[in-house]
Amino acid sequence: MKETLRFKLNGKPVSLEVDPGRKLLWVLRYDLKLTGSKYGCGEALCGACTVILDRQAVRSCSVEMKEVAGKEITTIEGLEQNGKLHPLQEAFVQHDALQCGYCTPGMIMNAYGLLLNNPRPTRSQIVEQMDGNLCRCGAHMRIVAAIETAARQMGGSAR
Amino acid sequence: MKTEKLRSLEEENLALDFSNLDADPGPAFPLNRREFLKLVGGGIIIVATARCSQAQEGGRRRGQPLPEDFNAFLRIGEDGKVTGYTGKIEMGQGVITSLAQMLADELDVPYDSVQMVMGDTAVCPWDRGTFGSMTTRFFGPPFRAAAAEAKAVLVELASEKLGVPKEKLKTKDGSVYEVEGSRKVAYGDLTKGKKILRHLKGVPVETFTDFEVVGKPEIRRDGVDKVSGRAQFAGDIKAPGMVCARILRPPAHGAKLTSVDTSGAKQMDGVEVVQQGDLVAVLHADPEVAEAALGKIKAEFDQPKPYADDKTIFEHLLKVASAGEVVAEGGNLAEGRKAADFVVDETYLNSYVAHSPMEPHTAFANIEGNKLIIQASTQTPFPLQEAAASLLGMPSTNVRVITPFVGGGFGGKSAIRQALEAARLAKLTGKPVQVAWTRAEEFFYDTFRPAAVVKIKAGVTKAGLLTYWDYGVYFAGGRGSEQFYDIPHHRTMSYGSGWTAPEGAHPFATGPWRAPANNTNTHARESHIDMLASKAGVDPIEFRLKNLKDARMRSVLQAAAKQFGWKPGKSPSGRGLGVACGTDVGTVVAHIAEVAVDNKTGHIQVKRVVCAQEMGLCVNPEGARIQMEGCITMGLGYALTEELKFTGGDIHDRNFDTYTIPRFSWLPKIETVILDAKDKPAQGGGEPAVICMGAVVANAVYDATGVRLLQLPMTPERVKAGLSRA
Fold first, then answer.
1. What count of other Cβ atoms lies within 10 Å of the Cβ of residue A157?
2. B:617-636 residues touching chain A, CB 8 A cutoff
3. What pLDDT is recorded for position B496?
4. CB contact under 8 A, A100 and B662
5. Where does residue B348 rank: exposed (0-12), middle (13-18), buried (19+ CB within 10 A)?
6. Sequence-distant (≥ 6) Cβ neighbours of residue B295 within 8 angstroms
7. Percent of chain B, pLDDT > 70?
8. Any bridge partners for residue B489, and if so which?
9. Is A139 close to B629, i.e. CB distance below 8 A?
10. Which of the four pLDDT bands, split at 50, 70 and 90, describes residue B57?
């Protein structure tokens, strides 16, 4: 049942022999060795696995590979450019917007998805967009502050 | 290797009473010196012995055989880089940063030159586990002492090398230099090519006036790794030929497997089926294939008749409670009741609460030759090493547990079932095995915060003075039940010793949950104190101060009031303001909260929380603040929504759709105040600020509505029911 699927991953073209019914999260983590995206719930309830699929934040645990064909995926590993952290990543570090760090890649990718489509979000828009991402350590307050800082620094562009 | 054995080991692990440890048993070292040097390479080894005697005594009292072997805490490389070794693990609480601060400060090396190696049984000093806010309190002092001794040895070496008396030498930035003169030598140059073993006894540690790094806010040193996705958690560990296991689970705790048919799974390409006793597992390189194979297994179970559910559990617990133990008593209760102008008798209920770390229990295990390597999300690498060795019948020196970053623990990852499963399957298959629990398994096998009941009878005079306090806590445990108010006639009893309850009490495993027992006890005590204040018609902060001599508790109450801008008033004032205070792991906290209650929906929105904390020396004020914020945010969960639904051993909540933890939209404005007490020993920081959250919200709800909610969580249904009774 395997098919050859082509898509773009973190800016590079990928061709993969894969069962189109498999979930993107597991293909990322086991086939492509990109372990930054985390498993948290498996049912799109926590956001730890969030990646960008054609400019939209999606839960990779619930996206089938056939939905990915011909599209562009960005994972947490693709956010850093030339060894330089993305302003969102930098803001998370500077605000200490994490504790255990397990939800962090998903938080950052979800925030990235927000800024791609709304580069100057209000605080309530940030809260609304992030509400489906769970953090058990309670870094929420700092995460909101980090997203605000990053949005300000980026001055209306997502990169 | 029987299933029974696996079970008994787990029970043993769960039976460890983590709540009342007053001393870390201290480090021990499983490797001999030659093996250690092989693992860590060359350099100067500083060894500490005498300083651990107190900790060893503590361990002996608990029946822990502690080796007389040397203990190693740090290494200075030839390049001047310093590595600190600790059996503690990093699960978000931030000790990777604060321990590095302590080491840098005490050793006089640049903070950035320090790295920490944590929770690796092969190279780190023995440790019982990372829980009870003990890292800074109990590991900190010997760790600092080791660094102080190392520095003194380096000065001696420099003195010999430079031919300058020790008294004329000072240390700074990783070098020893002449006070008057220009000669200096770097630590790395001193140790170059040498392996030195030298003891110096009685070297004092720095006093607070010497601190340069300790006490200064530092952001997390693992931040960059964690925001980039590079940080490795147990599930990110891979090895050639690794297979992912999915294990057949019973539908309910207590259910017995009566028949199983694995033929469907066996027919799947590349799937390995393992069956040994009650353990039925399917393994495949692709976790989705393993999952599909699990779905092909047909199994039948005998289920025991449930004896309680989430509604009847409290009645059940009271029925099976053992004779109580006296926590504290004084005066004469009957006399105290006689002296009271008002009495309040109430019963408080707390439900089972899940740990729900974002990373479910995960482990990697691999057997190479006669050695077992486990990489696990665990709070207890050394107990895991022992348990895995015992399970597989091998010497513990042949087992190495490496702890990668742990994705949240909160007490739940003191339970090591997943790692023992991985070890067992690695042995049975001969392959590297990953056991990564699903969220459903994480809920099912969690060691929940126990459901508990607290009964309080207490009285107060018209003048607002407490006269008596008759307190009984059932099944939470005694931590946090000790009274700090001045009450002439009092008795505090604890029935059922927390999570180590006898069989038949809880329908599933219970265990330590961040500040175990104290959340339950503080909720009950501070709610009750609030009611007494209201009866006496006294402002809740004034009432507490009136009945409190404890200077530290008074100071945090006053600091919280000041930060909040508290204006005195009798509750219920309609303002929606609540107060609570308490003490945990040596630290005192006071919280003030503001809430809004929607009378139609019953929804409680917590708008603002102020928390003042006195924790002795605060090693990293930034880290301490984050822990306070985290405690406050996490505490909103057990206050407002978190409550496990179950029928007997059948746990209904298996994911975040029905079990609701705090979200961004709940977020109050959080303000934290840390009182300066750097001249006092460091106390716990990871747990105290969570203990007041039940009471501070309940008291604020009462102040807003005049309705007293005695059961946590305060769900919209319970709020509405309370409003309709009013």
1. 9
2. 622, 626, 629-634
3. 85
4. no
5. buried
6. none
7. 89
8. B468
9. yes
10. very low
Average pLDDT over residues B501-507: 89
* CB–CB contact B358 A100 (8 Å): yes
- Cβ separation of B407 and A131 shorter than 8 Å? no
All residues of chain A having their beta carbon less than 8 Å from the beta carbon of residue B359 are 38, 40, 100, 102
**With contact defined as beta carbons under 8 Å apart, do B1 and B391 qualify?**
yes
First-residue to last-residue Cα distance in chain B: 60
> How far A84 CA sits from the closest chain B CA (Å)?
10
Alpha helices in B219-276 (DSSP H): 223-228, 263-266
The interface residues of chain A toward chain B in range 61-100, judged by CB-CB distance below 8 A, are: 75-77, 79-80, 85, 89-90, 92-94, 96, 98-100
Which of the two residues, B28 and B35, has the higher pLDDT score?
Answer: B35
Please state, in angstroms and rounded to a whole number, the distance separating the CA atoms of residues B45 and B77. Answer: 9
pLDDT tens for each residue of B677-711? 999 999 999 999 999 999 999 999 999 999 999 99
Return the structure tokens found at B546.
Answer: 């009136």
pLDDT at B40 over 80: no
Interface of B with A in 395-424 (CB under 8 A): 405-408, 410
Tokens matching residue B206: 């720095």
The enclosing H or E element of A148 equals helix A140-154
Which residue in the set A34, A39, A103 is minimally distant from B235, CB to CB? Answer: A39
Average pLDDT in the B457-483 region? 97
Kindly report the backbone phi and psi dihedral angles of residue B457, in degrees, each rounded to the nearest multiple of 5, phi listed first: -125, 130
Question: Is the pLDDT confidence value at B15 over 70?
Answer: no
By the CB < 8 Å criterion, does B261 face chain A? no
The reply to whether A40 touches chain B by the CB within 8 Å rule is yes
Digit-coded pLDDT (tens) for B87-145:
999 999 999 999 999 999 999 999 999 999 999 999 998 999 999 999 999 889 889 98
Say if the Cβ atoms of A127 and B664 lie within 8 Å: yes
Residue pointed to by tokens 């070292």: B29
pLDDT at B68 over 90: no
Chain-chain contact of A131 with B664 (C-beta, under 8 angstroms): yes
For B:328-367, CB contacts with A below 8 A are 356-360
Considering only CB atoms, A136 lies closest to which of B622, B629, B634, namely: B634
CB proximity list for B715: less than 8 A, separation 6 or greater: B602, B640, B641, B643
Nearest to A99 by CA among B88, B118, B630: B630
Nearest by CB to residue A30, choosing from B286, B410, B655, is B286
Residue-wise pLDDT for B387-424, tens only, equals 999 999 999 999 999 999 999 999 999 999 999 999 99
Among B227, B375, B405, B631, the strongest candidate for a mutation testing the A interface, having the largest count of A CBs within 10 A, is B227
Model pTM greater than 0.90?
Answer: yes
Residue B430, Cβ density class (10 Å: 0-12 exposed, 13-18 middle, ≥19 buried):
exposed
Per the structure block, which two tokens stand in for B139?
């590991």
**B227 closest CB neighbour out of A30, A92, A126:** A92
Q: CA-to-CA distance for B172 and B522, rounded, in angstroms?
A: 46
Residue B138 CB burial class (10 angstroms; 0-12, 13-18, ≥19):
buried
pLDDT tens-digit series, residues B545-577: 999 999 999 999 999 999 999 999 999 999 999
